[in-house]
Specification:
- The complex is a heterodimer of chains A (about 350) and B (about 230).
- Chain A has about 350 residues and is α+β, with helices and mostly antiparallel strands.
- Chain A folds into 2 domains: about 160 residues, no CATH class; about 170 residues, no CATH class.
- Chain A is built from 13 helices and 10 strands.
- A 6-stranded mixed β-barrel of chain A has the order 2-3-8-4-6-5, surrounded by 4 helices.
- In chain A, strand 5 and strand 6 form a beta hairpin.
- In chain A, helix 2 runs antiparallel to helix 9, helix 9 packs parallel to helix 12 and helix 11 runs antiparallel to helix 12.
- Chain B has a domain of about 160 residues: P-loop containing nucleotide triphosphate hydrolases (Rossmann fold), CATH 3.40.50.
- Chain B has about 230 residues and is of the alpha/beta class.
- In chain B, strands 6-7-8-3-9-10 form a 6-stranded mixed sheet. Chain B has a 4-stranded antiparallel sheet with strand order 2-1-4-5.
- Classes of the chains: A alpha+beta (about 350), B alpha/beta (about 230).
- The complex binds adenosine-5'-diphosphate and magnesium ion.
- The site of magnesium ion has 2 residues of chain B, from helix 1.
- Chain B: This is ABC transporter ATP-binding protein.
- Chain B: It holds the Pfam family ABC_tran.
Chain lengths: ~350, ~230
Amino acid sequence: MFVAWRDLRHARGRFVLIASVVALITVLVGFLAGLTGGLAAQNVSAVLALPGDRLVLQQPAEGRPSFSTSAIDQTIEQAWRTAPGVQRATPIGIVQGRAAAAPSPTAVPVAFFGLPHGSSASPVADLAPAGDDEVGLSAQAAIDLDVGVGDSVAVGDGTYRVAAIGADLWYSHTPAVVLTPTSWAEVDRNLGGDGLPTVLAVAGSPAWDSVAAATHTSVNTPLLSLTALETFQSEIGSLALMIAMLFGVSALVVGAFFTVWTMQRAGDIAVLKALGASTGSLIRDALGQSLVVLAAGIGLGLAVVVGVGMAIDGALPFLLSPLTTLLPALVMTVLGLAGGAFALRTVTSADPLTALGSIR
Amino acid sequence: MINLQDVTLTFPDGDSRLIAVDDVSLTAPDGKVTGITGPSGSGKSSLLAVAATLIRPDTGHVWIDDVDAAALTPTQAAALRREQIGIVFQQPNLLPSLTAREQLLVMAELGDRGRRHRMTVHRRADDLLDAVGLTAHAHKRPGQLSGGQRQRIAIARALVHAPSALLVDEPTSALDHQRGSDIMGLIHRLTHERGTATMLITHDLAHADALDTVTTINDGRASHSDTVLA
Ligand SMILES: Nc1ncnc2c1ncn2[C@@H]1O[C@H](COP(=O)(O)OP(=O)(O)O)[C@@H](O)[C@H]1O
Ligand SMILES: [Mg+2]
């Protein structure tokens, strides 16, 4: 790194410029990742917090399974419950609707979940109330309704007492509200549904695929079953595409910069080789230089993302976690180094003979 | 000592090959400046490139002390250069981002030698900056030095790792007569002081008094009537 450090200092302006570009791309990637994470959490955190190892959805005769159309009837439930290897099969109803703080006429959009009280331990199941006249609210539902434990919540013509307020759980951008299966079926029918549960959360280790085939259902891990959520797919898909494109842009920008920079230095590299520099030491110098530039740019960008992310806390769906900050930063570094490695061809192919000048 | 034995070097030239060095045998003893002269295109630089292990000859041996450089891989040749060979190019070929002193220190950074080696090089760098009269300019970058000063730094760099062989290609071609003469005198003095086997190429003999012997090359062939100068 002897020459690399001195080059960095000597050509300060150029390196500051490229590090700033890297920082800007990091800020963009960071914001997109945070926003994606925030939106995703608002979309699916309740689905990921369902009990069980896998989620069973009804497989329609045509097309892909979907949370909005899936209905788990008695036959399906019975087949899964009795399949060898199944420890527990919990039918869960999900439907979006509106709820209001009891005397107030203004309703807010929420997602109703219906599952039995004490069925298993999971953030959603923990909220399941014991009585049919009770309701469990996720954190944001309680805030939106402006109610506390013991207050009343009106849904349709029914009134429910708030029995518990729990984790921050969301489904399709609406906060989760948990009812007993009976109350949920009533709410679903009032909303025009058939009162049949939406998914079956299954715990155990049955022959997943053969039971699914026999019952015309599709079974997936909670994470993979998210593709059955239309809003999730379209939202996250386009954001993820933008992030991927930014990753590509950053690799290209860094690669192009270091390729041009190294080509400009081809003469110096030939001289160093003629003086006896090992190719290894020259490669270390070149990659070390890219790493310094990347670390500076990405570090700065990350600081901005974390700073702004903390400042806007709550104002936007923005998720600040290692998954949305450190992971993209790591990917940027790796891709940037890959771009920088592009320039190494100039290093390895430089002919020390050209340093003699007089000889062609 | 540099000892070239029956060295032939050819370059591809259309369908045939151009013979740049034609069966040359030549010895450059320690502590002497062995001059090589000849018209332009006669193969002087090619011969130097072979002696400097920058290119492998088609046939023949290139002894640097007791190592046959003609038999080395490029990696081994690079290691030999950073340990045993000093090269002064026609242009000073300094690195723009390094100060005069750092141009010398970089010789300790080219391989994987340890701290001891680095300290030795640092000590010798100060000594050599003094020897070429540039201690006062040690912190300057090449852009702030004159042509003659740059060439002096290049000479100091070529000697900082205490090489046994010093190879110099037309060191005065970019300098006026007085500065050229100073540079030649410097090379002569350092060669004798430090006992390096110096091979120096020059196309004009204006500074011939700095050479201990002169061999003339014509069309890649050495005339073996070496002139020993006073
Ligand atoms: N890399 C090369 N490729 C092909 N031909 C070369 C190369 N280097 C030198 N030559 C040819 O070899 C001959 C000797 O060149 P050179 O050693 O540079 O001569 P000098 O240094 O005496 O002027 C010339 O005809 C030159 O054109
Ligand atoms: Mg020449």
